[in-house]
Specification:
Oligomer: single chain
Shape: elongated
Strand content: 35-45%
Order of helices and strands: HEEEHEEEEE
Mean pLDDT: 77
Structural class: alpha+beta
Radius of gyration: 29 Å
């Protein structure tokens, strides 16, 4: 009886199936890379989802800022709509005025310069007790930005107090 050093029929089929699956996975991966490289969004212009960084020189260095945006289909641009300043500690900032400014390459942008103390586009707030007497509450203030503010012009949110 001669020993057959050939793999069994089942082992050969199993190896062939594994090889075909691996080759298919590689082909799909490479095809996905080529497809992703050929997609053009926004006509090749830049797309902005988040803007700059927050700079604080205020009574509370741990506060946070968020610039909210909406896409304007008529101008094909993201427009900044609000700046939300949150986590303002009312003990540290009580009776101080918080000034919110949007900074761009050439100075303040979108008329948010920290000088408007009232009205629809108020960007300057006097901080008072957040509600619970004796507790260091977190206060949140929202600045409404006038419509038409191109979000790509904003490079920094500056917060100062006086």
């Amino acid at each position: 009886m001669a020993l057959d050093n050939q793999p069994s029929e089942k082992k050969r089929k199993k190896g062939l199936i594994i090889g075909l699956i691996a080759a298919g996975a590689i082909a799909v991966s490479i095809g996905g890379v080529f497809a992703a490289n050929s997609i053009t969004i926004n006509g090749g212009s830049s797309i902005e989802f988040g803007q700059g960084l927050a700079s604080t020189s205020s009574c509370d260095a741990a506060l946070t800022t968020t610039v909210n945006q909406e896409y304007n289909t008529s101008t094909s641009k993201f427009e900044a709509t609000t700046v939300v300043v949150s986590g303002i500690k009312d003990f540290a900032c009580k009776d101080k005025t918080l000034h919110v400014s949007l900074i761009g390459a050439s100075g303040t942008v979108c008329s948010v310069d920290g000088t408007h103390t009232s009205g629809a586009n108020q960007d300057s707030f006097t901080i008072s007790d957040g509600g619970t007497t004796g507790t260091d509450d977190d206060v949140t203030k929202t600045v409404t930005i006038a419509s038409g503010c191109d979000a790509t012009t904003i490079t920094k949110v500056a917060i100062t107090t006086s």
